[in-house]
Design goal:
Strand content: 35-45%
Largest sheet: 6 strands, mixed
Distance between the termini: 64 Å
Structural class: alpha+beta
Number of helices: 3
Length: 197
C-alpha cells in the first residue's frame, strides 16, 4: 500500500520476525518495483529498468544468503571447458581405479565482500559411494574450492578430479555428492547412479 502511494521509506520498514537477509530481500525487491513505477523517476524507460535490475540483483543476492545451496547438473565427464560446457561420458559405466571428472553447478551460494579485494566464496565438497543395498563402499573429502573475484559471481561450477575406488566389485552404485558453503553455513547435495564393469 505504501509503495502504491509512492512512499518507499514507509514500504521498506522492517517486518517483524524476518531475519536480516529476508528483510534485505524485501527492501531491495520493493526498491526494484519503485524504480519502475515511480511517476517522478527517470523519464527514460530503459534507464528505469536498468535501475530496477540493479535493485533486483541485490534482492536476489540477499535471498540466496538465506536459501539452501543448490547443486545442479552433476555429471561424470572427460573434459570441462567452462560453465555448462562439458564432455560427458556416453554411459556411466566405469572400471575400478578409473580417473574421471565430477562436474557440478551451484546456485544460492554466498560471496562475502573482502575489503578492497572483491568477493570471496568457499565451497567444500565431499562424496560417498554406496552400493545397491545402500552400504557405503567409499568416501572422499574433496579439495576446498575457494575463489576471490573482483565482481560478485552470478554462476559457479566446480570440476573435481576423482578416481573410482581401486577395490570395488562389479555392480550398480550411487555417488552422493555434498557441497558445503562455508561462508553461508549451508550445504547442498546431488546423486549420480553408475555401474562398475
Amino acid at each position: 500500500l505504501h509503495l502504491s502511494l509512492g512512499d518507499i521509506e514507509a514500504a521498506s520498514e522492517p517486518i517483524e520476525g524476518l531475519q536480516s537477509g529476508g528483510q534485505d530481500f524485501i527492501r531491495h525487491s520493493l526498491k526494484s518495483l519503485y524504480d519502475v513505477t515511480n511517476p517522478t523517476g527517470n523519464p527514460v524507460e530503459i534507464k528505469r529498468y536498468t535501475l530496477a535490475m540493479i535493485s533486483q540483483r541485490q534482492a536476489l543476492n540477499h535471498l540466496a544468503s538465506v536459501s539452501n545451496l543448490e547443486v545442479h547438473n552433476a555429471t561424470f565427464c572427460t573434459e570441462v571447458d567452462g560453465f555448462g560446457v562439458v564432455s560427458k561420458f556416453p554411459q556411466y559405466a566405469f572400471k575400478a581405479d578409473q580417473e574421471l571428472l565430477l562436474y557440478c553447478e551451484l546456485d544460492s551460494f554466498v560471496s562475502t565482500q573482502v575489503d578492497g579485494k572483491g568477493y570471496e566464496t568457499q565451497l567444500q565438497g565431499s562424496y560417498e559411494i554406496v552400493d545397491a543395498n545402500g552400504r557405503r563402499v567409499a568416501d572422499q573429502l574433496l579439495p576446498l574450492d575457494s575463489h576471490l573475484c573482483r565482481n560478485q559471481r552470478r554462476d559457479y561450477f566446480i570440476a573435481y578430479r576423482i578416481y573410482m575406488p581401486p577395490k570395488i566389485e562389479p555392480g550398480k552404485y550411487q555417488l552422493k555428492l555434498t557441497v558445503e558453503d562455508l561462508k553461508g553455513r549451508k550445504f547442498g547435495q546431488s546423486n549420480l547412479d553408475f555401474q562398475i564393469q
